[in-house]
Every structure is written in C-alpha cells, then in structure tokens.
Design brief:
Length: 181
C-alpha cells in the first residue's frame, strides 16, 4: 500500500511538472528565434564601445552576464551567449564632423538608432548552407525602440562568416575575451 501511494505521488508530481512546462517549438532558421530582453540595458554588461568614423555613430557592445562569466579566452562563446550591438548617433559640428570629448571619443546623441543581436544556442544554424552558416549563431535587427525590424540579414552572416570563422564568428567579443582572461 505504501509503495503504491508513493508511486501515485511521484506520478502526480511528474504530471504537475509536465503541465507547467512550455514545449519548445522546433528550431527553424531565422531571426524570429531571438527576442530582445526588456532588461538588457540594466542587466547586460557593456564590454566595448567603438567610434565608427565612416558612419558617424557610436557602437556599444553588450553581453548577457551569464555568458560573460562562462567565457574563456581562446574558446568559443558558450551556448546561451547573447551579444547586443546598440548604435547611437555621434553629435556633429557645423561641418558634419563628430564632436570629441576630452578623451578623444565621439560624444553620443541621446537614444538608440539601431540594435543588432547575435545569439548562440545548441542546434541553431542548422538549415543554413555553408555560404551562410555561422556555427550556432542567429542574428536579428531591432529599431532604437526595440521593435523587430524585418530586414535581410545576409550582410550579418556574410561579414561574420568571412572575417571571423576561426574566432567563433564574433568580432569584439572574441577580442575582449582574449584581453580580459
């Protein structure tokens, strides 16, 4: 009797666990896999800022804290890595040249103008051909307010594939990991 009661309790527990679990949809390639976390500005770690003279913007690079803690120099980024590239306009002088602060860096205008996201998960990237696949990475684009932009992302795949395959298809994050560890 005691064994059957225990078995019943275990079965009920498993049913309860299963009822609360959300089944994950099968993976299909595309930016729809990536959500921009609402709390990224307060929770993520800014690890790099790059002045882009040719575009007159400032690119701010962020990574989720879990990936940051698990990253090791010379190793691929861990699954679950979410890299956010948030752009601001540089403040310009009357001739259209970026104004510089006392450190020689561009002075930002307030607000984001574009947000790009690169996320790595197990099995992601399957379904892309060799001319586009970036390991297990996907890309997505958002406007400055965080709304998804449905634009072609071929340039993201092409740039990362052509330039950094040996460095886990990342630019600033690979370099940052190598410098800090």
């Amino acid at each position: 009797m005691r064994v059957s009661m225990l078995a019943g309790a275990v079965a009920l527990g498993l049913v309860a666990l299963g009822a609360g679990a959300q089944p994950r949809a099968p993976y299909t390639p595309g930016p729809h896999n990536i959500e921009l976390p609402a709390d990224w500005q307060g929770r993520f770690i800014r690890y790099a800022t790059v002045d882009k003279e040719d575009r007159r913007i400032i690119r701010h690079m962020y990574v989720n804290p879990e990936a940051y803690a698990a990253t090791r120099a010379g190793q691929p980024a861990p699954e679950g890595t979410l890299i956010i590239m948030a752009d601001t306009r540089a403040r310009l002088d009357a001739q259209g040249r970026p104004l510089l602060d006392t450190s020689g860096r561009f002075i930002p205008e307030p607000g984001w103008i574009a947000i790009g996201v690169q996320q790595k998960e197990a099995g992601w990237g399957e379904g892309y051909g060799p001319d586009q696949r970036n390991g297990n990475w996907e890309y997505a684009a958002f406007d400055g307010a965080g709304q998804r932009r449905n634009i072609p992302l071929n340039s993201c795949f092409g740039c990362h594939l052509g330039a950094r395959a040996q460095q886990d298809f990342t630019f600033t994050y690979w370099d940052h990991a190598a410098a800090r560890r």
